[in-house]
Records
---
Amino acid sequence: MSATDQGQPGQHPLDDQTSRRAFLKGVAAGSAAFMALGCVPGAASAAGGELRLRWQEFFKKNYRLMTEEERRETVARLERLAAVDEGLQVSIGCEPPLPRVLFGYAFNITRCEGFMECVTACIKENNLDRRSHTQYIRIFEMEPGHLDPSAGDGRFFHEVPVENKFYMGTQCFHCENAPCTKACPTRATWKEPDGIVVVDYDWCIGCRYCQAACPYFGRRFNWAKPEVPQQEVTAQQHYLGNRLRPKGKMEKCTFCIQRTRKGRLPACVEACPTGARVFGNLLDPDSEIRYVLTHKKVFRLKEELGTEPKFWYFID
Amino acid sequence: MGTGSKKNLTTFIVDVVRCNLRGGLAYGLFCLALLACMGLGIYAYSFQARFGLAVTGMNDIVSWGFYISNFTFLVGVAAAAVMLILPAYVFHDANFHRVVIIGEGVAVGALVMCLTFIAVDLGGPLQAWHLIPGIGIFNFPSSILAWDVLVLNGYLLLNGLVPAYILYCHYRGREAKEKFYRPFVFLSIFWAFSIHMVTAFLYQGLPARPFWNNPLLGPRFLASAFAAGPAVITLILAVIDNFTRYAIDRSVFNRLRLIIVVSALINLIMLFSEIFKEFYFPTHHSSSAVYLFFGMDGHDALVPWIWTSIGLNLLATFVLALNPGKNNPRVLLPACAVLFVAIWMEKGIGLIVPGFLPSPLGEVVDYLPSWVELSVTLGIFALGVTVISWLIRAALIIEEQYHR
């Protein structure tokens, strides 16, 4: 186990990995009798310990109902299970929202040239499934005369930028009045106090009603177990963010909650080579996002639905 | 059945099971075929359990498919039991009183299928307990899906317990006290409307999907359900009338035909109204209907499907309405079957899939169910038929003994 895991609250001495290795060796040697009799204390207790972890994970509460203690415990369990199941050393955070912060996003359609650096950075940062090519961000190549991505081409594959075309990016818009959170039958998805709409992957039952309710195609479902090459996994994770999702769960853009709650920028904003992406605290009058909202001509998609997205487009 | 002098709840259940295990060769083969279908369904589901919903034809654009389509349609079949209860209890029709129990059996079977379809559609079926209030979180009243879980299970209880009480009394040779169960019968009448309206609201309440976000959806659900449900009940009654000694009065068939005709006509009027709205002045909210009826961007998988459905629907409705064979069952029964299939096509796939197309970002894909979905669906239908035939068999045997 990694050093960071040592001394985590809720960690049981039985959960130590050396004894788990002994257990695996025991199985490899075909000593089923040992297991049946339970006469190798290390082996039996490691198996029991791992089973106990999975048991506790299965019966844990919705993230919002957990005490801070319980949150630390589940995070420790998840880190250990990631090591056991995938051989990964990850660090899963559960940072709460920062006080007096409401995140907002603005997208400069004059500047974006369709390079898709944001898409690549997002896939990498958020451990998105490589096999199904899951993307939180979509970039649409637009003809002049339209301002709705549904009129554009979301599957273009050629050199960019193209003369007389412009580009619009979409992702989850983190609506203030989000139809998806209202639809969820188990409250597995909700809006955090800092405005980020999140999913508790372990509480989601995979009914996909939120996906039907989203007017912006902001949600993605794990139709199979997501596949990420081991060396490409982003290890700095958040419980509500980029940790590896189980199959059959809903996921979506979280404004890179694992970064932004520590004061960093989302991966897409950092990766954008043209500076088309602006992110910041809407409650801070000196922030860049507030400057854009005050001084630029901004608009949002499907305003008529009253969803109040916290994602604005603007023209220089 | 029930030869012993002591008849209690245990012997009731044992006798019900026993009477369903007995039967002739034909019945044995029938049960075997159903069992084989369920086995195939379980085998197919094992793939889904192992590899996830990726083995279905669904994707992020068409995120509900064949399972939810069948679920939606069967809610209507379940609700249609009310069309037997209503004449029996409100208009005190004695002939209908004899068949109410059959309608309730159909409702229970349809609900079992509905709930199974929901269960197999879940990405995390092992987490379904998160829905149970107390140990889970039930997002009530905000989520319409939570409402749906409530009304479907409530309707299952009502349609299971009331007949069970009556049959249990009759099994013990006593008369069932109508003042005990009558309030629940009337509750179930209102409840039948609620299960269908709530299921319609599930779709109707989504502004993201203009094809569904339409106030006509709920009423049209009811109209099509009260056509398709009684149509399948007519077929079941005809089977019972022909193959058992439990005679069913002709007046029941005649009145059911009227119910079907009125509902089917109302359904067609509403369909016409919807088509008019979508195509007289097409807006970008009409694109789902354009996809459904004419295809879009080279994708037209549903075009033959919906036109077949509408053709069959018109044909069956006119045959049932004009009654060319003068109540000849050889004309009316096939017409009922055709109407049932037509509404299944339209209110299943024809309603759910185009709701997702084009996607909110304007993308169109064609949805085709995979072999896993088809096999699981076949298995669930076999389960439903088994439940319905077991319940009706037991009910008829008990009723026959009681009246003798």
---
Amino acid sequence: MRHILLATTMGVALASPALAEEFRWASTTDPQTMDPHAVNSAPVLGFLNNVYEGLVRRGQDMSVEPALATSWEPIGDGEGWRFNLREGVTFHDGAEFNADDVIFSYQRASGEAADTSSWFAPVSEVVKVDDFTVDIMTSAPNPIFPDSIANWMIMDQGWAEANGVTEPIGEGENYATLNANGTAAFMLESRQPGLETVLVPYDGWWGDAQHNITRATFTPIQNPATAVAALLSGDVDMINPVPIQDAARLSQSDGVDVVQGIEARVIMLGFPHQAETLKYGANEGDANPFLDVRVRQAVAQAVNVPAILQTIMRGNAEEASQLVSPAMRGYSEDLAVRPAYDVEAARALLAEAGYADGFTFGLKCPNDRYLNDEAVCQAVVSMLAQVGITAELDAMPVRNYWPELREDNFDMYLLGWSPGTFDAEHPIRFLAATPNEEARLGSWNFGGFSNARVDELLPMIQSEIDDTARQAMLDETTQILQDEVAYVPMYVQPLVWGVRDNVSLVQRPDNFFILRWVTVE
Amino acid sequence: MLAYIIRRVLQSLLVLLVVGLVAFSMFRFVGDPIDNMLGQERTVADIERLRDQLGLDDPFVVQYWNFLEGAVQGNFGISYRQGRPVAEIIADRAPATLELAAVSGILALGFGIGLGIFTAIRRNGFSANLIMTLSLVGVSLPTFLIGILLIYIFSVELGWLPSFGRGETTQIGGWSTSFLTESGLKALILPAITLGLYQMTLIMRLVRSEMLEVLRQDYIRFARARGLREKSVNFRHALKNTLVPVITVTGLQLGSIIAFAIITETVFQWPGVGLLFINAIQFVDIPVMAAYLMLISVMFVGINLIVDLLYFAIDPRLRIDGRH
């Protein structure tokens, strides 16, 4: 055997090291499309942020900064926003950028066929004032509108019309799913879906290039062990993510660094707030104990979050007290403490609620959605056992998980939430508002949590211009959600990237990888 | 002969239809593609519209029928994940798998038969025993472990070979080949060894035991007694008679080389149809899964048919039986 291995490798010359400015990176997910309006998912938007630009963009600290708009201000008493556009910007094909492209991109991104249309739900009209001024009118005052459109990318009207792609296509193929023509620092040179996507710098970019990349190649690598090996062998310069269990070992390897941060995603436990009975376990058919806030509080106190972070997350994550992480706008600073881990208190609460002898129920959990999700659920099961309640864990791939939750098949479940707008209003709208299909509220509120005051506060938060007043309402909402134990937020998921040590880059909390901040020595 | 072929072809078609039916009855358990296709801000109405559009709520028999209807017209549907015609995607990916399978097949066959003969002739020699012992590794270690081991030795530690991918490819017509570039050839080595190792040891052990069997036969003794040269006895008389079972196994193994390429392709991020299938499962990309499974079963059934026909060609006894 050994003979064969040697024989076949003998004649092979040493692999040549990569050129310094050529950059190669790998991630588990290939962006599904190159069309910025066709699929509203993080892999697509994150990748296309290197190719397309919006009116505004997010900086290294997630703050909103000018991009294709140089400035913006509210119109009147909040009737809308006026955006002053940057002059002298050209698309990758040389076409000039102006207000018509903004209007066109609004129509394209908000139309029936677009997956991004919900971003424009508050918009009533977009008006071209002159070639470099656009007014975006909203049906109600909308203070966070500029924050909410950082991923709304502008496409050239002429290019889209010439190539017959004036409408995005989500489940199919057209010119724009394979080609791109943005204004950002990198141009799409070639695209082979699922295999390789190559970007090259755009010389005509309006900004000052801070990177020194001459060519960037993205390869999706699904198998984590393969990605780690590719990084160690220098076949790629950066991988995202690094498996948590490999992070420590990798950071000690020569030539490789591990870049860690915390993501925007909060991992929490959810309860059935509407179900009358338990659906799983020995107590199936009995009254639903989670309707009692004391039981929910007991769960919150029984879960030893620091221990989970220490063991399963290997010290890489941070505790969470509310539905958003501290990096988000509208985070409630004064409510930053999560319920203390206290077995005695939890037992007392259960006894008070009439469950001194505990009960059995079913915990649903995904096993391929969040970092170490199943292990976290197993830890939760054993921690709950310590206060006398028995959870029967049912972990499954995420492709089976959401349909189960939609069918209400759970007694408790695990959920992670990353607010697309990076604002505390986002999870309230999706997770805490009473589900209402028409109004597009509570669409991920599987447990059906409902609180009249929260429902009342939400539209007020959405339209409050004054930051202090808005924060007060957000704080009030957070207080209600904490008091009611609507969810049990546990921790903010970590971000772990692996890079070659000659690469410097910026890790943004939204897990977007921005090429223009990469330098290779 | 003709009747035999027709009968076999009809049986094969039946097998294909059953495979498809089983596959479609299983898809609902794989999961729901909808959540992968819609963003965070989807509503229940969006979900229902898309389910309806894709026909996901139809009974699986109806879904299967729709698939067959398209398939006979050469239309395998549109991939949920990539939004491109499935036939096009598979045609894009097939060269990678076929080249890998061909190289591993040739490696397995060449080294398998060669080492098999060697260990049979020198069956008490030290090196033959060493090879036999080592071959246990090939049979018993799982493919992914061998792959990862090879990557760590030759890519991470020694840095000789690329750890993943296909290297640079050249486009010839609709076929992308990695045979023509240095990086492409280098990228082939590790995956081909990983994929072919099991088959190689299997063929080697088979050839060895068949050969030992044959070498004990009377006609070999007579050949030796006649004073024929050792070479001629071993290769012309003994080897030829060991080949029938080897062809059967090789034929079937050729099918499994392509089918089991899934694991090797995943470990090496080899952009072939196996990796495509794995990704399709994760995404619940039903059109791709269906087309892949049908393709693999067509291949297995076809290979079996060819192997059966080859028997006819090689073994005259079957031909005489066939005329009865």
